[in-house]
């Protein structure tokens, strides 16, 4: 256990046996912070793309929030985005792709989780030079039951401290343009929007010095 938040909620190191719970949290927050269950035909793929790889490849920076009803959130990161993406592309995604059919590039033919299957076959790692000043990155997703308790703020500060102790001088985040609540939350932690022509316009990038 790393520490207690109070009210029966604790932050602890994520384990391999937490993968199903991590997948579920990712699914239930996968629509810009809202539940994506109705949208997906494979409930595990979001977590296998965006969350579980951190527990496997960066276990020292992968934490779950556990409450009275079990795992209800996670806080994940890496101090070296370039190294993480290289390993993910070499070690993580090829075995996943080997057991999933590629739906092809025609988005008009995609159904259900085809977008995720396509992303697994053709992973996109967004780390242009404009973000190199902030080499660490992270993710946080919390179920509704945890919100409003200070868990996100304390958990993120804990991750940021861990990343700084590992040598990272700065941290960046990818945020959905629709998730205004998340953007406001990150601003309270010292993050601000990064704007550069090389960055995709369909994602908001925020960064902070650690």
UniProtKB/TrEMBL annotation:
The N-acetyltransferase domain, residue ranges: 9-210
Superkingdom, natural source: Bacteria
GO MF term (any one): acyltransferase activity, transferring groups other than amino-acyl groups
Keyword Transferase recorded: yes
One Pfam family it belongs to: Acetyltransf_1
Swiss-Prot/TrEMBL keywords: Transferase
Entry-linked PANTHER family: O-GLCNACASE, PROTEIN O-GLCNACASE
Full protein name: Acetyltransferase (GNAT) family protein
Species of provenance: Mesorhizobium tianshanense
